[in-house]
# Entry
Amino acid sequence: MILQNKNFAIIILIGVLFISCTNLPYKKSVKTLKEGKYTEAIQELDSYIETSKHPAFKEKAKELRSQAYYQLGLQEYEKNNYTEASEYFFLANSNKADSLLDNCYFEIAQSALDDLDYPDASDYLSFIIFHLQESEKMPEVMYNEILIQTNYSQDIHVAYATYQILQNRFPTSDAFAQATKIVDSFMPQLIDEAKSQWDDNLYADALDKLFIYLDYPADFITEIKDMIGNVYYTWSVTLLQDRELDNVQTYLIQAEEYNSQLADQVNDKLIELASIYITQGDGFLVDRDIESAISSYRKTLAIIENYEVANNKIARAEEFARRIAQAARLVEEGDAQFYNEEYVAACESYSDAYKLDSIPQIYDKINLAYIWTRITNDPEQYAIEIVKQYNNGIIPEKIDEVETIAQKNYSRQDIRVTPWQVFRTVTRNSYEVRYTILIPDKNYFLRWLIRLETGEVVPLNEATEELLAS
# Structure
């Protein structure tokens, strides 16, 4: 047992000695760093990081290497060697190093600007903007970037976008005040671009631009607001002319909101819009689309409060809806009566419905009920009436002509007339109607087939056909 404990202790001692021996390069690098030999320390730490099999010490070595790079950068920074210092700070890759890296890049950019090397200056300034956003140099950085974008790149849209960031983040800085002077120089050009889009009927694009410029803290703000109002007004007038009405009221209200001088014109167009909604509602009512009609009338009330014309139209439409519904119930009642062969009652129901809703469909039902009332109650007399009414009464007219001529040429004793006789046929609801005229020189045996359900009149012989043709 004692021997086993001794062996275990020896194993632990050997492990400690092994770790101690393998960390000798690390300890040496720490000593080199403390002695201020930063370049030598970096080389030793690089070697250790590459070969070490101990993750914890490897991470510590990386931190020490970062410190060494920082110290080298600091030495160069104090000598105003900003390019060399920036390289060391970049390699250090720490918050502490970044706090000076932005200063290095700013100074390098300033030097590039002095040499008119705008692309190089912009590269360094952009790095600060996008990667070192907490830099205390940021206002000056953005100002210089705006300067480059305006004078070298000549991209005033990008310059304005940078200016907006500067405005949002550092509105009280001297750099922002200086940048505003630059933007003042090209703001008229930006406004003219929006005006060109407005002139080309690209209203949404023009407004997108103008709203971007709306926060611009300068004298142009009044001009921009007025133009926004004008664009909204022109857009609404165009939509009004095209009868695309959904956004017209909104755009007219916006027009007056941004340009109060348009108040009278906006009011006139709102009245015109209300009139169009009334006309549209009337059209819907003609088409019996009552829900759409009322909806259209109500839109005018959002334009003209308590508009009497609209209120009256809505009341009439609602009454029309009530009458249609009541008529539909009467038609339904009449249909049931017709199905039960109660034709007189059905005719009355349909007639009452027609008084409420005078549409052809109900009128046709009245006629059908009347036909079946006649077919049921007095089919023979109805058949005679159909003949007499055929083609605006042409048959009685022709018969009268024949009889009149006969009476001029012959005495009453020579003329024999057998008026209207009705005979049932084998076909359901069909009758034969006869009218006979006998005179010395010619006999008229007139015969017609009458189909009661359809009111059809069919000549049954040549004499009848000749009579109608004469």
User: Anything to note?
Assistant: Residues 308-339 form the longest helix (32 residues).
